[in-house]
Design goal:
Blueprint (H helix, E strand, L loop, with lengths): L6 H4 L2 H4 L6 E2 L10 H4 L17 H9 L9 E4 L1 H13 L5 E6 L4 H9 L2 E6 L10 H7 L4 E7 L11 H14 L2 E5 L21 E6 L12 E4 L3 H15 L4 H12 L2 H24 L3 E2 L8 E2 L2 E2 L7 H11 L2 E2 L1 E2 L10 E4 L5 H17 L3
Parallel strand pairs: 1-12, 3-4, 3-5, 5-6, 6-7
Antiparallel strand pairs: 2-8, 7-8, 9-11, 10-14, 13-14
Helix pairs in contact: 4-10, 5-6, 5-9, 11-13, 12-13
Length: 369
């Protein structure tokens, strides 16, 4: 393995220090919760090794949300990041090929690179609405392709695949006998109808998710992967055991108790997300230097500075960061031009979001050639 630090992590707000940021629009999750918000007492927990697969009752709760999925098809992991790592290190070796949607969450790209795999990119284009072309995907799969890596709702654009396209992608993967890694971390944040869990539709699909994004619980580091393929599941479990044996029993207990009453958290979360989405939509409609593809889910969007805006992109970021202490996720975090920026609107408080958007507009004006 040849590791390299990712720009999205080097420049993450927790690395720069939250105290140095006035308006944080970089986050790709809902606002972080505090332990006191959960009403959970852990005094009775025995600090022993946990079930290697994951707490049985927790896995049952996760499985219960998906038709046709059972608890023994759910493997808990240390966040979605380790689930993605387990999948890549299980299915790939140096020289293998995979097909990855781009832009994408950096781990979906950097882990295969660290392994020495050859990545074929399925590049989503702004001019095409960041829409996935199933025919192009099918044409790009070769006999050497080990798996296809997609996300939905998409990070960083917020664009969503339809259920029809999801089923078409799965049909392609089944026909070509290629696994589909489907990152569904934002699945419950859809603005419209929710597609079925990919892993519930085929043994060739592997679904990954976590409590970090929708529920604002990144600090407990609890994610999972789901597959109907029993042999593959056993290999994923072996990988997990060799990396960290089991999850933290505290993390799993918090997750279990939270999920038992998640509905009381989800409704207000979705309400606030929609309210913040409307704030961003109103702002970008009025901001003539920017253009976007309107998201259909998640808590992020990926607008860009118009080419004819006359804005010096380097000066824009310098002004935004240094003068206004406001941060967004610049395009290079996702191997895109820096005229793009990921704006997260679920994490900041309403006043912080409004101020941050206003500061973006001010920096755009002040960065004109």
């Amino acid at each position: 393995m040849k590791y390299s630090r990712m720009p999205i992590e080097i420049e993450a707000p927790e690395q720069m220090g939250y105290e140095n940021i006035r308006c944080n629009l970089t986050e790709s999750s809902f606002a972080d919760l505090q332990v006191k918000d959960l009403g959970i007492n852990l005094d009775d927990i025995l600090l022993c090794y946990a079930d290697h697969i994951g707490k049985k009752e927790l896995r049952a709760l996760i499985a219960a949300d998906h038709k046709g999925i059972t608890s023994d098809q759910v493997l808990t992991t240390v966040g979605a990041a380790s689930a993605l790592f387990i999948v890549s290190t299980t299915l790939l070796k140096a020289g293998d090929r995979l097909l990855v949607m781009r832009p994408n969450y950096a781990t979906n790209i950097e882990t295969p690179r660290a392994i020495g795999a050859q990545i074929d990119f399925l590049d989503l284009k702004f001019e095409e609405g960041f829409r996935l072309n199933v025919d192009e995907l099918a044409a790009r799969i070769t006999p050497e392709t080990k798996f296809v890596s997609l996300t939905n709702p998409h990070n960083p654009t917020g664009v969503m695949m339809t259920e029809k396209d999801l089923r078409a992608v799965i049909a392609v993967c089944e026909a070509k006998k290629v696994h589909l890694l489907f990152d569904e971390t934002y699945r419950e944040m859809t603005f419209g109808p929710m597609a079925p869990l990919a892993a519930s539709l085929s043994p060739w699909a592997i679904s990954v998710s976590s409590l970090s994004k929708t529920y604002g619980l990144p600090g407990i580091r609890l994610g999972w992967l789901i597959t109907q393929d029993t042999k593959l599941f056993e290999t994923f479990l072996a990988a997990k055991e060799q990396m960290y044996i089991c999850n933290s029993i505290l993390d799993e207990e918090v997750a279990y108790r939270f999920l038992k009453k998640k509905d009381q958290f989800l409704a207000p979360t979705l309400k606030r997300i929609r309210e913040h989405f409307e704030i961003v939509k109103t702002w970008i409609t009025q901001e003539k230097a920017m253009e976007w593809i309107e998201p259909a889910g998640g808590v992020v969007c990926f607008p860009r500075i118009r080419k004819d805006s006359g804005v010096n992109v380097h000066l824009f970021y310098k002004t935004l960061n240094e003068k206004y202490s406001t941060y967004v996720g610049p395009g290079h975090w996702f191997e895109q031009d820096r005229s793009f920026m990921r704006i997260g609107y679920g994490w900041p408080k309403t006043d912080e979001l409004k101020e941050g958007l206003s500061n973006i507009s001010l920096a755009l004006r002040e960065a004109k050639f």
